[in-house]
## 1
Amino acid sequence: MTRKSNIFWILTSLMLCVGARSRLRTDFYSKTCPTLFSIVRKEVRMAIKNEARMAASLLRLHFHDCFVNGCDASLLLDGKDGEKFAFPNLNSARGFEVIDSIKEAVENACSSVVSCADILAIAARDSVFLSGGPSWKVLLGRRDGLVANQTGANILLPSPFESLDRIIAKFADVGLNLTDVVALSGGHTIGLSRCALFSHRLSNFSGTGAPDSSLDSRVVPRLQAACPTDSDGNNTVPLDINSRDSFDSHYFENLAKGRGILQSDQVLFSSELAISTTRDIVRLYASDPTAFSNDFANSMIKMGNIKTLTGSSGEVRGNCRVVNS
Ligand code: HEM
Ligand SMILES: *[C@@H]1O[C@H](CO)[C@@H](O)[C@H](O)[C@H]1NC(C)=O
Ligand SMILES: *[C@@H]1O[C@H](CO)[C@@H](O)[C@H](O)[C@H]1NC(C)=O
Ligand SMILES: *[C@@H]1O[C@H](CO)[C@@H](O)[C@H](O)[C@H]1NC(C)=O
Ligand SMILES: *[C@@H]1O[C@H](CO)[C@@H](O)[C@H](O)[C@H]1NC(C)=O
């Protein structure tokens, strides 16, 4: 191709990208639901006051929604073939009642205009902010999907047992790069994990007869005590040891010390592949909280843009748990 036609194609694809992106807008509901932001903020604040962990649970809902069929609130649909029953969500994803309360309060103020997918995006932002983290302008105008995808949830959501290359690939599949992988993993600066998802690291890891060598041996006894071998795996520990409810960059300091709880956390710093991919980003965030805050906000906006339904696609659900009849 000539230089000129190259430039033509670059400009055309740039315009297409911008066109696709700009379908979501920060002021989407400014006329139709001007009180939306204050209503969601108030509801999220109440929920967190009642239980600090709820901030983490709401943040995770937006992530698990966006990775499966895009940010379309498909995760919220009830039913035995729903995403709620996929392995990554079963007995794990929580906060659905809080989303119901927010939706009800929003419906009371402005009926049938605000999508459940947008409520998830705003609730995630507010949860981070109210936990002491950054804020950002949430892009809005998503519509709700008509189907759940349980198989998709099983295939597309990253697992804590996966290697770094698989995790990177799953993020790449939805258009997220290495910066996004590390920044968004920083969501684990709040919330809890069940023992079942990391206890394989505490003894005879991969048949070595010893705990995972990338795990700081000083925290092993504490984790073993929290996860007795005869328990059912449902006990929980903070994902960010010593800083469980505050949204800060302490999670990355922990990774640099071998104190990541999940195998999928620690590989960001300790795996062979991390050396050429994610380790320097972990180091950056551990030493520069502002860099983490800025990148996290940007990556959340990117994640919130995954395959959104806009215009007249999908619908605005009246009840987040069921499609409109
Ligand atoms: C990188 C791949 C990821 C993996 C493998 C992963 C895996 C997990 C696992 C296994 C848990 C514990 C679940 C349980 O105990 O049942 C968890 C919790 C959590 N995850 Fe992730 N996650 C990843 C990325 C993310 C992202 C991108 C976010 C958000 C930006 C996020 C936010 C959270 C939060 C806030 C919790 C705590 C939830 C609560 O306490 O209710 N995770 N994650
Ligand atoms: C569910 O997700 C899988 C994996 O991405 C995809 O192949 C399939 O088309 C999706 N199904 C529906 C109904 O969206
Ligand atoms: C990831 O994408 C963002 C823009 O969305 C960019 O600023 C950042 O440099 C990229 N990171 C890597 C490692 O390519
Ligand atoms: C560790 O696991 C390996 C294989 O999974 C097994 O052969 C070995 O006996 C185990 N060692 C201990 C100390 O339990
Ligand atoms: C954990 O608790 C859930 C109910 O909250 C239960 O269904 C499940 O069987 C428990 N897990 C294990 C491994 O026993």
## 2
Amino acid sequence: MEKLIYLDHAATTYVKPEVFEAMKPYFVEEYGNASSIYSIGRNNRKAVEEARATIARCIGASEPGEIYFTGSGTEADNWAIKGAVYAARKKGGKHIITSAIEHPAVLETCKYLKKEGYDVTFVPVNSEGLVDPADVEKAIRPDTALVSIMYANNEIGTIQPIKAIGEITWKHGVLFHCDAVQAAGSIPIDVKDLGVDLLSISSHKFYGPKGVGVLYIRKGVRLENLIHGGHQERGKRAGTENVAGIVGMAKALELAVANMDQYSKKIRRLRDKAREQILNRIPYVRVNGSMEHRLPGNLNVSFEFIEGESLLLLLDMKGIKASSGSACTSGSLDPSHVLLAIGLPHEIAHGSLRLSFGEANTEEEVDYLVNCLAEIVERLRSMSPLYEDFLKANK
Ligand SMILES: *Cc1c(COP(=O)(O)O)cnc(C)c1O
């Protein structure tokens, strides 16, 4: 079989066998509609409500009724932001504060709202990739309807000071949404401790199935609906429940929370080993983003004089699946907005690689990765006229 070393857990994860087992009955046997009154429907209703209670417990919500199932993390982000500002419109709210390094699910939603006539402030990050809570406070206006700041960044893994921002939004009476999609499963989440009103998570980032997410809506917070139709999710998010997905998501989050210490220790060790070896063996490399406030499994490095896409393709040929963490992969040639926001010049941002470690990775895989990287980087640089000029100039 072709070698497969999967180092892209920030993009998605496989489904854990225990999770798949928990989901199985809801495809062939327990197929009833959760809104129906006969027994196979009732069993499904019960499964959905148990999953809701589990997820509420795992993120520290006050009650299961604060958990709303959606079709993805993207939908949860869209609902939180559009739902909050549309509800605030009647009271004159028309301003959103977010950061420069959000996921497209937040960034593009805010840009869309800007076209609709809302004002958006994109607070910057420092060279470590961190938001300064004071910048958020300075940006608050009387018509600010929502602050939306991510918990952990999907490209560089930096963890934002959510609790400090939560204290500020609370003081000013402004709603606070947090995209915790990348954080969930890797670091603890406690919505009350963080002081958030709205929080998004997505199952496929923590070894659950794709196509199911959650929006936590603190009791008393009113959002406009995004999806209209039937009475599912207490009339707030129409559409027949994805029962198997919901059950799988709850099981995956329960496992993630129970094993978090062990898991984060393991992936941190692999990540730190990879970082150390790369820095030791390859010249003209920089690590992007704070190492202190960072997800345990994330490493983002830039290789000077290298084109990230070529690097990814050559790694793929060696069986190593990684990402540039940038929009390049989706067909755009612009370098990552996150790397530009932390101050990287375009040409260096272009030579970037995101490695995100997971449960099944091993020390041997890290050794293999670094060997391949050293070889590929040297090969690509030997073909680079820029590198040649650089060497001549520095002789
Ligand atoms: C993956 C991701 C999303 C989108 O979640 P989907 O379920 O894939 O739609 C949103 N925000 C962040 C930070 C992510 O990493």
## 3
Amino acid sequence: MLLKPNSSQKLLLPRTKQVKNIERRFFMGRALSFGALSMLAGCNVADDSKAQSILDAMSRWNDGVQEAIFGATNQLATTYTEADITDPFPFNAYYSEDKAPDVKEEGYKLELTGLVDKKAPWTLAALRALPQQSQITRHICVEGWSVIGKWAGVSFADFLHMVGADTKAKYVAFKCADDYYTTLDMASALHPQTILALTFRDQVLPRKYGFPMKLRIPIKLGFKNPKHIMSIEVTNEDRGGYWEDQGYNWFSGT
Ligand SMILES: Nc1nc2c(c(=O)[nH]1)N[C@H]1C(S)=C(S)[C@@H](COP(=O)(O)O)O[C@H]1N2
Ligand SMILES: [Mo]
């Protein structure tokens, strides 16, 4: 599905191009200066672990620069009206719709691990009893299409504070009922529009859109919005992600 022509498209297209250009420049810079860097650090290219840690550091620096350029974590994503909602709303995952995990509400509990004080798992009923926040925002997929949807659920910042998460930790990592996983930077996790979404268009989140819950984070590309979440870890280790580990940019802000 192609981008619908509207005001934010004008902003989006040049920006996407800009991201690509910036990444290309960083990549070239990285490639050209690799020899010099290895010398500086006193290692040769055969010294894999040292070379890798330099590349990792540069990649983290790239993520930091993107955050500084786009300031995504300080800005609010555009919100839309009910009339703007894309209907029908597409299905998307790394498999076809009939393969979407069929998580049952009975027995489901959201697991919390890592740097969290209160690790007691959460039932859906308990999550539904918390204050709910709604949003109509644009979901942008890295494949080049975007759609507008409506989600509601628990403010993720409120949830992290409630369970005594160490919000000074670097990351929040997610594991899903399929083989999907992703890692978010803490600033994005705490963004005021990041929600643990329990509904889509005011109905219980359907299986195809991530039942029992997805993280809806409009300041990130679609693949940073994990569906069918089973466990959440607060951590200082980057746990990577399904697409991130296949080369998609880790930061992937919108
Ligand atoms: N568990 C899980 N989450 C996932 C995916 C997936 O395959 N499995 N795909 C991602 C991608 S690439 C996109 S574009 C969105 C699609 O979310 P939607 O169903 O709400 O449109 O889910 C993201 N989260
Ligand atoms: Mo996507």
